[in-house]
Design goal:
Helix content: 40-55%
Number of helices: 14
Largest sheet: 7 strands, mixed
Radius of gyration: 20 Å
Distance between the termini: 13 Å
Number of strands: 13
Strand content: 15-25%
Strand order of the largest sheet: 2-8-7-6-5-3-4
Order of helices and strands: EHHEHEHHEHEHEHHEEHHHEEHEEEH
Length: 341
């Protein structure tokens, strides 16, 4: 079987595994106080051109999202997000479980607009009953989006400006940030993101880490005693070195960016191959996720040789599926898929 269903099916990138093996027998302090974790944080600050950035490593994306949102919002606030956003669709109500409502906004190919955010905020405060309602206390986006699309620099600037005007944080989910940074169409760099977002995270799990995400607070706005908050959520890992060692390696020799570029290189081949074979695309994605509209009767045949992800129902006779390249996809995988198709 050829596996294109996601970007986290295999274990760990060889370079990260080697780093873990080489440091395995070194005695290091726990809970992220070790030298590798500190070095990783320093490298991230340098890559972001944000010397004041505060960095916290956690296990996974849902954990990062819930921690950031729950710690930055007050009890009566919710978070604005695309109705297709990860926190609104695929996190099992993790944000609502923490006591904060996800406030859905319309989207275009996974992206929300500053105009819609502004309208929501204006309408909320114009409502005479707003004191009885859930306050919009944060804006959440992801880059790339759930549909593999990218925000432009102008779009991010507009979102940042409206958030600054209303004094609410702009939070970017970067679970697949490396694949965005590797795309030719991408306009956002880590320094730009650090300047325009109040907090974001650099995804590791989907980029080849065994586990791990790096939360980056960019405005000296990490909540007071954040380590204690992380522990209250059951998210403080005793062997924090596992994240530190991997991210220290990610940000050495430009590995993080190179992993993204490699996956995008193969995704472009995948896209060209599918177009050549006459497959119908749901939308144009410049990143590692490709979305196809398939006739239901053809899915069973495709599934005999290719593992894909169900995405959503398109109509009674068609389904949207996702094929994704990743850090572990090889040229042989693409060539084999071409033969199968």
């Amino acid at each position: 079987m050829l596996h294109f269903e996601n970007d986290y099916n295999e274990g760990v990138h060889p370079a990260l595994l080697q780093a873990l093996v080489e440091t395995n027998h070194i005695n290091l302090s726990g809970y992220g106080t070790d030298s590798y974790t500190q070095s990783a944080a320093d490298k991230i600050r340098k890559a972001c051109a944000c010397p004041q950035a505060q960095v916290q490593f956690v296990t996974g994306g849902t954990q990062a999202n819930q921690l950031v949102i729950n710690s930055l919002l007050t009890s009566y606030e919710g978070v604005l997000a695309a109705e297709t956003g990860h926190i609104a669709t695929h996190e099992a109500g993790a944000i609502e479980f923490s006591g904060h409502k996800v406030l859905p906004l319309p989207h275009k190919e996974g992206k929300i607009s500053a105009q819609d955010v502004k309208k929501h905020l204006e309408d909320f405060y114009a409502d005479g009953n707003h004191e009885h309602m859930v306050f919009p206390g944060m804006v959440y986006i992801s880059h790339p989006t759930e549909y593999g699309t990218l925000y432009t620099k102008a779009e991010l600037e507009s979102l940042s400006n409206i958030c600054d005007a209303y004094q609410i944080p702009l939070f970017m989910d970067g679970a697949r940030l490396g694949y965005a940074l590797g795309a030719e169409e991408n306009e956002l760099t880590l320094p730009i993101i650090s300047k325009l977002c109040h907090v974001f995270y650099i995804g590791g799990t989907k980029m080849g880490a065994l586990a791990g995400e790096a939360i980056v607070f960019t405005k000296q706005n990490m909540p007071k005693h954040f380590t204690a908050i992380v522990k209250q959520h059951g998210a403080l890992v005793a062997k924090g070195r596992l994240f530190g060692v991997q991210f220290d390696r990610f940000f050495a020799d430009n590995l993080y960016t190179e992993i993204g570029r490699s996956a995008i290189f193969l995704a472009k081949q995948l896209r060209a191959l599918l177009k050549e074979k006459g497959y119908r695309f749901y939308l144009e994605s410049p990143t590692n996720q490709q979305f196809l509209i398939m006739e239901n009767r053809k899915l069973e045949k495709l599934g005999q040789s290719v593992v894909y992800s169900f995405w959503e129902k398109y109509d009674e006779n068609h389904t949207v599926i996702r094929l994704a390249t990743s850090w572990s996809t090889t040229q042989e995988d693409i060539d084999s898929l071409a033969e199968e198709l």
